């Protein structure tokens, strides 16, 4: 049964992250997921210091709040003329360092370290179950990640046109009366929630990998946004399935292997995708030369 839960959790994380990843890749903001997954550390520590509890929900609220602060600071620096990649680098390294300092200062006597607050392990996720009235209703990760997945589906479905226009042509969106800034922060809020909901259970490497790699692979395969989203979801599920069995056979990290499989699929698309594949382009060029 644990095999099923691990594959389901990996697939939900992948699907949840890759939907948002498509918009981040198109906006050239792929590393925002990595930034949030590291910069939320002080939020987790502050939530622990205020509540005195390691309850997941309290820490999630603290982490989500700092995740939104991260997005706001990155946007503020960009508006001030700092380049996008530099803004992301400055904010997430500074906030991550603040979290490390807070842990070293205030939580020495408590079992709260970088491993337990930042890097989960998907292999253990099925054992951390949710109970209602003494009855187990499945792993907490399924409900947490599943909730963020359905939230992403709901919001993106309701405002698909607005997100699409804002992503491809912000000036046109503004001229049509679409509140571009609002939808930017709404998207970043979804990224923050999805990242926080996922990384405690499955580890930061899986979250960051699934935000970027399936969406980047889908980008090479199609030029249509709706198709790109569906392909990225499919790729993330395939990566979770194949990655789990590869990790099982090799006795390797499950989350790491899922991302490795996603990376292999990206390399295949890079060389063989119909429109952007390196080998396909070379073959087409060679064929044109021969015809002339």
What is the residue-averaged pLDDT?
83
CATH top level?
Mainly Alpha
Beta-strand residue percentage:
under 5%
Main β sheet profile: 2 strands, antiparallel
The secondary-structure class comes to mainly alpha
Number of strands: 2
Give me the CATH fold name: ABC transporter involved in vitamin B12 uptake, BtuC
Tally of individual helices: 14
What is the percent of helical residues? over 70%
Runs with pLDDT <50, length 5+? none
For this structure, what is the CATH homologous superfamily? ABC transporter involved in vitamin B12 uptake, BtuC
Which of globular, elongated, flat, extended, rod-shaped describes the shape?
globular
Number of domains: 1
Strand order of the largest sheet: 1-2
Task: List the secondary-structure elements in sequence, H or E.
Answer: HHHHHHEEHHHHHHHH
CATH architecture term: Orthogonal Bundle
Give the terminus-to-terminus CA distance.
Answer: 61 Å
Please give the radius of gyration in angstroms: 20 Å
Pfam family, one: ABC-3
Membrane topology: Multi-pass membrane protein
Protein name: MntD
Transmembrane segments: 6-26, 31-50, 56-74, 86-106, 141-160, 172-196, 202-221, 228-247, 253-272
Description:
- By secondary structure, the protein is mainly alpha-helical.
- α3 runs parallel beside α5 (84-106) and α4 (56-79) packs antiparallel against α5.
- The protein has a single domain, classed as ABC transporter involved in vitamin B12 uptake, BtuC (Orthogonal Bundle), CATH 1.10.3470.
- The chain has helices spanning 2-26, 32-39, 41-51, 56-79, 84-106, 114-118, 140-158, 160-168, 170-175, 180-202, 204-221, 225-250, 254-272, 278-291; strands at residues 129-132, 135-139.
- It is globular.
- It contains 14 helices and 2 strands, in the order ααααααββαααααααα.
- It starts with a helix and ends with a helix.
- β1 (129-132) and β2 form a beta hairpin.
């Amino acid at each position: 049964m644990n095999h099923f839960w691990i594959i389901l959790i990996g697939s939900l994380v992948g699907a949840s992250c890759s939907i948002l990843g498509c918009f981040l890749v198109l906006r050239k903001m792929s590393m925002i997921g990595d930034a949030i997954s590291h910069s939320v550390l002080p939020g987790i520590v502050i939530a622990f210091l205020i509540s005195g509890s390691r309850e997941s929900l309290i820490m999630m609220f603290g982490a989500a709040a700092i995740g939104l602060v991260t997005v706001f600071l990155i946007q503020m620096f960009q508006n001030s003329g700092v380049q996008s990649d530099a803004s992301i680098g400055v904010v997430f390294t500074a906030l991550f360092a603040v979290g490390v300092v807070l842990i070293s200062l205030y939580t020495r006597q408590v079992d709260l370290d970088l491993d337990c607050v930042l890097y989960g392990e998907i292999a253990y996720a099925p054992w951390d179950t949710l109970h209602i009235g003494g009855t187990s209703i499945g792993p907490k990760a399924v409900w947490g990640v599943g909730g963020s997945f359905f939230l992403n589906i709901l919001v993106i479905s309701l405002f698909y046109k607005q997100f699409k226009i804002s992503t491809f042509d912000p000036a046109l969106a503004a001229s049509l009366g679409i509140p571009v800034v609002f939808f930017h922060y709404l998207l970043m809020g979804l990224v923050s929630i999805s990242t926080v909901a996922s990384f405690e259970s499955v580890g930061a490497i899986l979250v960051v990998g699934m935000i970027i790699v399936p969406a980047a692979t889908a980008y090479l395969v199609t030029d249509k946004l709706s198709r790109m989203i569906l392909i990225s979801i499919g790729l993330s599920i395939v990566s979770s399935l194949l990655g789990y069995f590869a990790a099982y056979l090799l006795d390797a990290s499950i989350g790491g292997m899922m991302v490795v499989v996603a990376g292999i699929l990206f390399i295949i698309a890079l060389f063989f995708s119909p429109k952007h594949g390196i080998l396909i382009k070379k073959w087409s060029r060679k064929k044109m030369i021969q015809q002339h």
